[in-house]
């Protein structure tokens, strides 16, 4: 979820930057989330393992803040994993540091509330998108809403996000983009 300017500034002033390699795990499904991350560069993904099937739930790019919110706030096992899709840099806030800043700064607390509400709205939209739209409609929506992501993220992650196989995504892309269509 994109951070408002001041929230981003507070994160940048307070929390250290960390470089992470491609495919680095930041949180494993089933672990308790102990950190929140602000993405400076690169791309992270939130995913869920559903009986051996990897389902990408959301991508996070520069300017986004991410954690397994329920796990982070309630200190319960996470239903999701977090990993870097490409080499990335993030700002990392431990649960203790985050809670300290929430307690000391009304501005940070207000900004965090705005981010949390925006995240909830975003996840509701993702949920409705997944159950109400066809894979082709989801792909077209992704092309319109975040075209840069399509060039940044490997296609097998895009397929997982759309709920299709990589082969189906390839066919879908050809159809949508008009490749080999006469």
What keywords describe this structure?
182 residues, alpha+beta, 4-stranded antiparallel sheet, 8 helices, 8 strands, globular
Task: Provide a descriptive summary of the structure in words.
It contains 8 helices and 8 strands; from the N terminus they run αββββββαββαααααα. It has about 180 residues and is of the alpha+beta class. The strands form 2 sheets. It has a 4-stranded antiparallel beta sheet. A 4-stranded antiparallel beta sheet has the order 2-7-4-5. The relative contact order is 0.17. The model has no long low-confidence stretch (mean pLDDT about 90).
SSE diagram, text form:
Layout lengths: L4 H10 L2 E4 L4 E3 L7 E7 L1 E8 L2 E9 L3 E2 L2 H6 L6 E4 L3 E7 H10 L1 H27 L2 H11 L1 H6 L2 H8 L3 H12 L5
Helix pairs in contact: 3-4
Largest sheet: 4 strands, antiparallel
Strand arrangement within the widest β-sheet reads 1-8-3-6
How many distinct beta strands?
A: 8
Low-confidence stretches: none
Strand content: 15-25%
Q: Please count the helical segments.
A: 8
Q: Give the helix/strand class.
A: alpha+beta
**Mean pLDDT, as a whole number?**
88
Helix content: 40-55%
CA distance, first residue to last residue = 40 Å
Order of helices and strands: HEEEEEEHEEHHHHHH
Short description:
By secondary structure, the protein is an alpha+beta fold. It has helices at 5-14, 69-74, 95-104, 106-132, 135-145, 147-152, 155-162, 166-177; strands at 17-20, 25-27, 35-41, 43-50, 53-61, 65-66, 81-84, 88-94. The radius of gyration is 17 Å and the shape is globular.
């Amino acid at each position: 979820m994109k951070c408002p300017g001041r929230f981003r500034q507070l994160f940048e002033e307070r929390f250290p930057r960390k470089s992470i390699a491609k495919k680095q795990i930041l949180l494993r499904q089933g672990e308790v989330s102990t950190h929140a991350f602000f993405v400076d560069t690169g791309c992270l993904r939130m995913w869920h393992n559903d009986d051996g099937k990897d389902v990408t739930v959301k991508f996070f790019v520069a300017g986004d803040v991410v954690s397994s919110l329920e796990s982070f706030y309630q200190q319960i096992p996470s239903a999701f994993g977090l990993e870097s899709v490409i080499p990335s840099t993030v700002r990392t806030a431990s649960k203790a540091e985050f809670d300290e800043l929430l307690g000391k700064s009304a501005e940070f607390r207000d900004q965090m509330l705005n981010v949390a509400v925006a995240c909830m709205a975003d996840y509701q939209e993702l949920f409705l998108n997944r159950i109400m739209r066809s894979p082709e409609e989801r792909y077209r929506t992704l092309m319109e809403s975040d075209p840069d992501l399509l060039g940044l993220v490997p296609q097998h992650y895009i397929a997982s996000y759309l709920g299709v196989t990589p082969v189906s995504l390839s066919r879908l892309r050809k159809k949508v983009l008009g490749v080999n269509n006469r």
